[in-house]
Write a structure and sequence with these properties.
By secondary structure, the protein is mainly α. The protein is built from six helices and two strands; from the N terminus they run H-H-H-H-H-E-E-H. It has one domain. It has a two-stranded antiparallel sheet. Bound molecules: zinc ion.
């Protein structure tokens, strides 16, 4: 998936969880955790040279293979586990980051390339930048409009 789809998915998930009361806090912390969600939705593709963040950090993109460690489900489990050890504003920021990261991993799992999982790959049928991704983008956009 390309970065606009990832960012939109993180916004949709964040807004949904916000409406459910998960991010009930001060406006300042809500804005920060929202930004953390967007960062979390972009960070996994730091390993891809042509991605939004990969272009800015080409050394990282050269060292890591695309859709390897940064797309691991274990990072999600680590982030989730880390929530147990933080509280207050830091917990909200981490939760926002986790929301963005999780939405990214879920969307990439729907693609043909998929994500690594226990020596194999979880994958779907959608090609990046295809009409299938466009359809997902449009569905996410409709969901966001309905949520607002
Ligand atoms: Zn990715």
């Amino acid at each position: 998936m390309i970065w606009p789809t990832h960012v939109l998915a993180s916004i949709v998930l964040y807004v949904l969880l916000f409406k459910l009361g998960l991010f009930d806090s001060s406006l300042f912390l809500v804005v920060l955790s929202f930004m953390a969600a967007i960062l979390g939705s972009l960070l996994p593709d730091i390993d891809e040279r042509n991605s939004f963040l990969g272009k800015k950090s080409f050394i990282v993109a050269r060292i890591l293979g695309h859709r390897q460690i940064t797309h691991s489900v274990f990072i999600l489990i680590f982030l989730l586990f880390s929530l147990l050890f933080v509280s207050g504003g830091l917990r909200l920021l981490l939760l926002g980051f986790l929301v963005g990261y999780a939405s990214h991993i879920f969307l990439d799992a729907l693609t043909v390339t998929g994500i690594p999982f226990l020596g194999t790959r979880i994958h779907g049928w959608i090609k990046t930048s295809s009409i299938g991704e466009l359809m997902i983008f449009l569905v996410l956009l409709v969901i966001l409009i309905l949520l607002l």
